[in-house]
Amino acid sequence: MGRKRNVYLVMKPLAEARALFFGRFDWEAMRSAEEVAAGDAVGRVLAEPAHARISAPTYHGAAMDGIAVRARDTFGARDTEPVELAAGEGFVFVNTGEPLPEGKDAVIMIEEVQVLGEDRVRIEAPAYPWQHVRKVGEDIVATEMLFPRGHRVGPYDAGALLAAGITSVVVWRRPRVLIVPTGGEMVDPADLGGEEPAPGTILESNSTMLGKLVEDRGGTWVRHEGVRDDVEAIARAVARGAEAFDLTLVLGGSSAGASDFTRAALERAGGEVLVHGVTVMPGKPTLLAAVAGKPVIGVPGYPVSAMVAFEEFGAPALDRLVGVRGRPRETVAASPARKIASRLGLEELVRVRLGRVGDRYVAQALPRGAGTVTSLVRADGILRIGADREGVRPDEEVGVELLRPREEIERHVVAVGSHDLCLDVIDDLLRERRTGVTLSSTHVGSLAGLLAIRDGRCHLAGSHLLDPEDGSYNVGYLERYLAGVPVRLVHLVTREQGLIVAKGNPKGIRGFEDLARADVTFINRQGGSGTRVLLDYELGRRGIPAGEIAGYETEEYTHLAVAVAVKSGAADAGLGPRPRLHPGHRGALRPGHPGAVLRHPTPRPPPRRGPLGGVRPAGRRPRRLRHGRDGPGDRPPRRGRGRHLNRATGSG
């Protein structure tokens, strides 16, 4: 008999779930205050207003090096009728910051004074009262309210507090958060000792990621030791959190699987489940509850889902406990580079790369799987698609919440098209040379890159497209799809394509003919990619029907994904470039495959010569890149037995 599975309560829309959760607790009553030194208050929120104890400055002081005078003694001075003053009664030498001598009310800069001797000076212009003088309370007046309650103290504020004689302030105590990772499959990376995790185990990284987000929101956190899939054990951890912490995050176990025990554990701990399931994707299994009057969030296990649960519920909860309003993100209007589909009934949060192309922002959707942690790292913004929509079309403008400063996004050079790791190398070189420019690349295939160039949705497009008619690369496609569009063709790299097989080539794969064997499973690249075009060309030359290749319809969007599929045993072979092969892999066939980058002219100042080298003048016909001698650096197809490529660098 199988184990009982959870059943979601009726899922709540995001707005309703937020209202239920935040309306359940008296957040103000949960806050408590403490007194800290002014220098330690940076990042903290004032629980009481801060009033100045002293004025700043506390005395009338000289604001310049020069002489202190009575302004009335200088009236009438001009270059044709200078005034001479005697030391003591007439003037006193002063330095910046010194108290103004008794009876003096102005300072004349030393550069405007003719010194006639130790006790006599001449001036040729009058001074006015309080000229170049910092008066008492010019900056801060004693008893004035320097900062109101609810103000977050910054580094400059700490200086102002001390200048006003305030050595300590009353702030809201930092919220304490307990993070409870659950699941017998979770392994602390520190426990591996550099070894790879065993099959079926998962590196537990969510607690550190969420803990650092807690710190960023002004809280402190403690990581509970990993809890196995056991209702009683999880319930004890939750009870501890409700007793000693302000907020508890239970990681994993909130979904509907047979080993998802968070809901049962919360109920065992006497908790009230407010929401189990939110109509948002990713993040649908989010669980919201109250245990002993304290908020508890059941956070989904996948990293992106965990992030969404924290952003939508954890971060606003901490803002309330800290005593501040939320941090609204800047929003820009952007158009998708291509259609972004979505499911009706679910509000979808799509992480995107952004760049300004011409006079508009272009958004390129990143991989949307709940477990794709790299989408968190690479994202420039979040595009929200409402639950009542089936997606966003390229001709629509939608709001995108920025995750990076707009100025940084403005400096992105947007590259769309073929997957080639040399683009990452170029981006690294640009950053190393501090050009202020970054390369933002998205891998959607060569043909999709050309179409993005045509539609003005990128600056660069990587392309490796073979023309089966004449054996040339790229040029025919430019003439076909970009007729009339001003582009420049830059020959950037030449790469060798080969069949990627497992170490030792256990299936004895020697060529394309072997892909049709019944015991061989293939992993393909997506339609429109240069590698896919090359594969179809080579299969056609040999008369091999695509339908006879097991796995032909299984697609990946990067060479790295193909290589990993082969290494993991999910496939026996895939087609990819030699420099991307994992050490220990073997290539069986290497047709030449030149690469090119297309640059779409935009109204930007011409860049200085950099890592990309020169570009061809616009309007000049690019040279055809053919197999053999016609293509600069290209290599002709080789047939027959392959050779080991173990010394190749990189992977993919």
Question: How much β-strand is present in the residues?
Answer: 25-35%
Q: What ranges have pLDDT less than 50 throughout 5 or more consecutive residues?
A: 1-5, 580-594, 599-652
Which term fits the overall shape?
A: flat
Q: Helical content, roughly?
A: 10-25%
Oligomer type: single chain
Radius of gyration: 34 Å
DSSP summary, beta strand count: 39
Distance from N terminus to C terminus (CA atoms, Å) equals 44 Å
Distinct helical segment count: 14
Features:
single chain; 652 residues; seven-stranded mixed sheet; six-stranded mixed sheet; flat
Explain this structure.
It is a single chain. This protein has 652 residues and is α+β, with helices and mostly antiparallel strands. Helix content is 21%, strand content 26%. It contains 14 helices and 39 strands. The strands form 12 sheets. Strands 31, 33, 34, 35, 36, 37 and 38 form a 7-stranded mixed beta sheet that branches. Strands 16-13-17-21-20-18 form a 6-stranded mixed beta sheet, sandwiched between helices. Strands 22-25-24-26-28 form a 5-stranded mixed β-barrel. β29, α10 and β30 (438-443) form a beta-alpha-beta unit. α4 (206-216) runs parallel beside α7 (303-322) and α5 crosses α6. The model is unreliable at 1-5, 580-594 and 599-652 (pLDDT under 50).
What topology emerges from the helices and strands here?
Layout: H1 14-23, H2 27-30, E1 33-37, E2 50-51, E3 61-62, E4 66-69, E5 83-86, E6 92-94, E7 106-109, E8 113-117, E9 120-123, E10 133-134, E11 145-147, H3 155-163, E12 168-172, E13 176-181, E14 186-187, E15 202-203, H4 206-216, E16 220-223, H5 231-244, E17 247-251, H6 262-268, E18 272-276, E19 280-281, E20 287-291, E21 294-299, H7 303-322, E22 331-336, E23 340-341, E24 347-357, E25 360-365, H8 374-378, E26 381-385, E27 391-392, E28 398-402, H9 406-410, E29 412-417, H10 422-432, E30 438-443, H11 446-454, E31 460-463, E32 472-473, H12 475-481, E33 488-501, E34 522-525, H13 530-542, E35 555-556, H14 559-568, E36 573-577, E37 586-587, E38 592-599, E39 625-626
Parallel strand pairs: 13-16, 13-17, 14-15, 17-21, 19-24, 22-25, 29-30, 34-35, 34-36
Antiparallel strand pairs: 1-12, 2-11, 3-10, 4-6, 4-7, 5-9, 8-9, 18-20, 20-21, 22-28, 23-27, 24-25, 24-26, 26-28, 31-38, 32-39, 33-36, 33-37, 33-38
Helix pairs in contact: 4-7, 5-6
